[in-house]
Design a protein that fits this description.
single chain; 2 domains; four-stranded antiparallel β-sheet; 5 helices; 31% helix; globular
């Protein structure tokens, strides 16, 4: 899954996704879900009005849908003949926002890619789970699957793919500078583990700046902010070199959020 991000002058992020189905796969991808759950108790209330959605939209209310699930408010677009909406997947706790296509010709066939999946949100970038599912042609399954619901369900679980991407998250209602920088430190390490940063020297340099900024709080906010600004400059300089778009989004915009709230 390829990822892009932009932020406009009003603070609205556009998260863009392009999905590739490897040629080694047998089935066409028909379902894509990104986990964007929100805790209404501890997470800040983000703007939820004024968003538009894809032409074939299902659930578009992020607050308490199905009576109990909460998600980060988003707008969306989708490729032609794909639907979209909030949802909840059995066996998983957080809410999702997903896209799906019931029309076989528009699904993502093996060896092809499809773009046009976007989320618009005021939520800051975070590492989120993404789940993709290929369609299974039950008519062409071996005889042992015929009228055997248990085996079909087991096969569906087996062929699903779960990975990591970047999606919107609601910041905490109570901002704590030290804790927020601790999360930034974790994001640097997690980005390295994901391969979104490919150089240990860059990791060391970024962590040194974050540790310095954290050590200055709460007494020396000015130095902490200046150090975070230097961190942002390094992240920008390495974007597209040793940092992927995922690492850039996570580190630059969360550092920017910290600077703006210290």
């Amino acid at each position: 899954m390829a990822f892009t991000i932009t932020k406009n002058s009003n603070g609205l992020f556009t998260y863009g996704y392009s999905v590739t189905n490897p040629s080694t796969n047998d089935g066409a991808i028909f379902s894509i879900d990104i986990f964007i759950g929100r805790d209404p108790v501890s997470d800040v209330d983000l703007p939820s009005t004024g968003f538009t959605h894809c032409k074939i939209a299902d659930e578009t209310n992020p607050n308490g849908f199905q009576g109990k699930y909460f998600a980060v408010p988003v707008g969306s677009t989708a490729p032609d003949k794909w639907s979209c909406g909030y949802g909840h997947l059995a066996g998983y706790a957080p809410a999702v926002f997903g896209w799906g296509s019931i029309d076989a010709p528009y699904r993502i066939k093996p060896g092809t890619s499809l773009s046009g999946f976007t989320l618009n949100s005021y939520g800051v970038p975070a590492i989120q789970d993404v789940l993709m599912e290929p369609a299974i042609d039950q008519d062409n399954l071996p005889p042992e699957y015929q009228e055997n619901l248990k085996k079909i369900v087991a096969l569906e679980k087996k062929v699903k793919w779960m990975g990591k991407t970047v999606g919107p998250k609601a910041p905490p209602k109570v901002f704590d500078g030290g804790n927020f920088i601790a999360n930034l430190i974790a994001l640097v390490n997690q980005s390295r583990a994901q391969g979104w940063i490919d150089n240990d020297g860059i990791v060391t340099s970024l962590l040194a700046k974050l540790n310095t900024a954290q050590s200055k709080l709460p007494s020396d906010t000015k130095t902490a902010k200046n150090t975070l600004s230097a961190f942002m400059n390094e992240v920008s300089a390495q974007n597209g070199k040793h940092l992927t778009s995922e690492a850039y989004a996570l580190l630059y915009f969360n550092a920017q959020y910290a600077v703006n709230h210290l």
